[in-house]
Amino acid sequence: MSTAAIALKSTEDRQDLIVQTPTAGLSLQGCLRVPGDKSISHRALMLGALAQGETQIQGLLLGEDPRSTADCFRALGAEISALNTELVTVRGIGLGNLQEPVDVLNAGNSGTTMRLMLGVLASQPGRFFTVTGDSSLRSRPMSRVVKPLQQMGAQIWGRQDAAFAPLAIRGEQLRSIHYHSPIASAQVKSCILLAGLMAEGETTVTEPALSRDHSERMLKAFGAELKIDPETNSVTISGGAKLQGQPVIVPGDISSAAFWLVAGAVVTGAELTIENVGVNPTRTGILEALEMMGADITLENQRLVAGEPVADLRVRHGSLQACQIGGDIIPRLIDEIPILAVAAVFAKGTTVIRDAAELRVKESDRLAVMATQLNKMGAKVTELPDGLEITGGTPLVGAEVDSCTDHRIAMSLAIAALNATGTTTINGAEAAAISYPDFVTTLQKVAIG
Ligand code: S3P
């Protein structure tokens, strides 16, 4: 093989990504943009739908997850224009005015859609809703939001004491609570804050470590009354406020940029610039982890765009060292652990990732799946109950691997394949479209050799 070949092969029910590296290896060069932040895209659509007046969104992610959110809120009565990256217009219905849909609300593969929407639905007195999702989402735990909502007076039914979707919800007038969440989860926090918007009095969520704060920033911008106590990781929202539609500019998703940061760091001779990436401090754990490993990454052109910090990120290839990751940084890089595991495979020494048991209940069991799939390529990855132990430095060999229908696994394995000899086939690569529909096209553009 003298030139790199990166191609998608479509079979009846899935797409496989084939990465063939040339004998001399390949490299990566160029300047690129990643799609809009998934978390911010969901919130812009939801708050736009709940607000009065018009919300204009620039840079929305066109992945399948935000499409699920848009479809659900259209069924609830919001007018949302056709989704595109330039400009999406949302004509809101106003808090408390949601329509009772005539069909089941389907959140697809999206945990954020389902969990945040449950807070909204539970607080609509007198209306009845049913929600479901794909097979992955139907096996993900919903008790983490159902339990606190029930403490607020919500009526929710479903399998195993409403632990799993499909769920049926009868909206109620909720009462405020102070909820001490056992997990640092922005989905849990945001669900309760959204429910608190319609509850009487002040609702507080305290979390054990700070999770992403996009809801807090956007709720404030839309006119909600919010108090934040950084000392105790607590947020308090006052019930009864009215939300007013706002312009939202969605920055590039650091979780998508992470694939290029690791690719740029581990592929010989690589140099990539990723423009317009959101660098909200509650999301930049991946930059800190890669810095600990010795990666050559610089932040350029730092600015504030519509209340969110943004920068251009430049990465150059260099040698990486193993690192130890755990504790409060975990919620700030929770979605980047699969690609961080790939970085560790190419680092010198043994990397240990702990306190990350949450990965077992993501779109797949990401600890088990990453260990199994990377080991098929010759890596040395051991699963821990709450993390991974990765001994780097063993050369990877192309193999047939599987995304297990998880978008971040598909893309992480594609990056690992860039440094494997021979041919790697990633089965189920179409999963990438959940958060990054143009991933393969971009990879084809920046890969040289
Ligand atoms: C998200 C929060 C995180 C993250 C998910 C998106 C959000 O989940 O993994 O991809 O937009 O609030 P948890 O809150 O469950 O950690």
Summarize the structure.
The chain is α/β, with parallel strands linked by helices.
Q: Topology, please?
A:
Layout: E1 5-10, E2 15-20, E3 27-33, H1 38-50, E4 54-58, H2 64-75, E5 79-80, E6 88-91, E7 105-106, H3 111-122, E8 128-132, H4 135-138, H5 143-151, E9 155-158, H6 159-162, E10 164-170, E11 178-180, H7 186-197, E12 202-206, H8 214-221, E13 226-229, E14 234-238, E15 247-249, H9 254-266, E16 271-278, H10 285-292, E17 296-305, E18 308-316, E19 324-325, H11 337-345, E20 350-353, H12 366-376, E21 380-384, E22 387-391, E23 396-397, E24 400-402, H13 407-418, E25 420-421, E26 423-427, H14 439-446, E27 447-448
Parallel strand pairs: 3-16, 4-15, 7-8, 11-12, 19-20, 23-25, 24-26
Antiparallel strand pairs: 1-2, 2-26, 3-27, 4-6, 5-6, 8-10, 9-10, 12-14, 13-14, 16-18, 17-18, 20-22, 21-22
Bound molecules: shikimate-3-phosphate (S3P).
Shikimate-3-phosphate binds next to helix 1 and helix 7.
